[in-house]
Fold this protein.
Amino acid sequence: MTQPTDIRGEHLRTALSLAASGMPVLPLRAKVPFGNCRRCADNACGGRPNMKNAGPCTCPGTCHAWAAATTDPDVIQSGVWRRAWVRATAVAYHPGGAGLTVVDLDDPAAVAWAGRTLPSTQTVVTTRGEHWIYRGTMGSSNAVRPGVDIKSTMSYARWLGPGTGTMTALPDNVRALAVKEPSPVRPAPHAVGVPAGAVGRECRHRTPAYLDRGIAMAEQRITEARSAVHATVYRTFLAVLSTHGRCGCLTDAHVTRLFNAAQAKGETVRHCTDAWTNARTRLGL
């Protein structure tokens, strides 16, 4: 297949080269992945097979952010993907899919901290700081300390070149960054009570797969928020309550999972409680 000669073609050639080396790639638009197609909007399709707690998806496009990353050259050059490359501004890759972890250092202070604390490894200069790339995978987590994000499984990183230095094994002190100490006091959120008239009625939400998938998707939506976290948490709580809040199927365990996902993004217990209460009030629960 003849390669385009413009800058978009350069993105495609870069993607094919990375994929040939075993690195799953995807196109970016303005530093973020392309949105889902209409069929996959709001993950209605169930998500990609390699997404946590997600069902199958046969969409051939670039949907589902990091989960769309692939090493298949036929997919990368397919019609849907080629149209995406025309609009792409950069190439991204799924670090976890390539067996890697990226320590994203967002500012000079974070870079200086890494120089004092972490073992040297392959380093890539970014627009604001550096990417330190290690061999090995772990869970991704944002804001593990000021100016430091972890990008590995269920995440993506922008390709900015091979960088310098020799890649080393993922050290324990990087893994430890994502381990959150339990809060000394964490009041448990109240479960949604069963509204009058709902008791004794058959509830389709009680199907474990249906409810669990809904909660997993809500956790994922919060976890993948890159901005407007407060608003994302509120909208997610509102969506969960509008679907599952009127028949008593939500339990403390379900709500705690949502609170934990929000707190992992930096939300306080108070913010979570306020968002949950406001969502219930709006829906009249």
Q: What stands out?
A: The longest strand covers residues 100-105. The radius of gyration is 21 Å. The chain has nine helices and ten strands.
